[in-house]
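Box 3.1. Reading complex inputs
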Amino acid sequence: DGGITQSPKYLFRKEGQNVTLSCEQNLNHDAMYWYRQDPGQGLRLIYYSQIVNDFQKGDIAEGYSVSREKKESFPLTVTSAQKNPTAFYLCASSERGQYSNQPQHFGDGTRLSIL
Amino acid sequence: ILNVEQSPQSLHVQEGDSTNFTCSFPSSNFYALHWYRWETAKSPEALFVMTLNGDEKKKGRISATLNTKEGYSYLYIKGSQPEDSATYLCAFRGSTLGRLYFGRGTQLTVWP
């Protein structure tokens, strides 16, 4: 079955520690996205990538980093510079990001908590 | 940051009631308007992608309309069922960037 796999489902971070959230897709989509959801808020865009080896900052990129070395993978690192990392993180993908009217497909999410 | 507003924030209806909610977005540089349904413990699922002014789309008991000139879209659910309980998200896509701007969602609860 084609889809998006996020791992782990739950993640705990100690103060001052970097953690990496995994996102893999086998939909052959060019574009991938990372969103953060907090209670009472909509989905806020952290980073997005429309093609391999290229990515752009979203609205809340500070304290996060990404890489896009392979089409299938778009890992998100939450660095120690992110002061309030506790949230639910969703990864998504879509076909041909910049010129496409195709919908985004979402993973099941990772819930990150601070110990 | 571009503003996408959804109303109401939450809605409680009885099974069999019809309901509708609103998404407001900028009327300039429009490219597309997306609707998603997000059920608890599942991932968001696309309902509609709407691109043309006056567009109407339907999927079973759910339909949506689009007015790009005034910057709003309505989502209608006819004869709500408990399985329609979810958060409904709309997202605006402008003509210059390949990204979506999401509203905060309308949380629908349908009581049996």
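In summary: The interface with chain A takes residues 1, 4, 31-32, 34, 36, 42-46, 49, 51, 89, 91, 93, 97-105 of chain B (CB under 8 Å).
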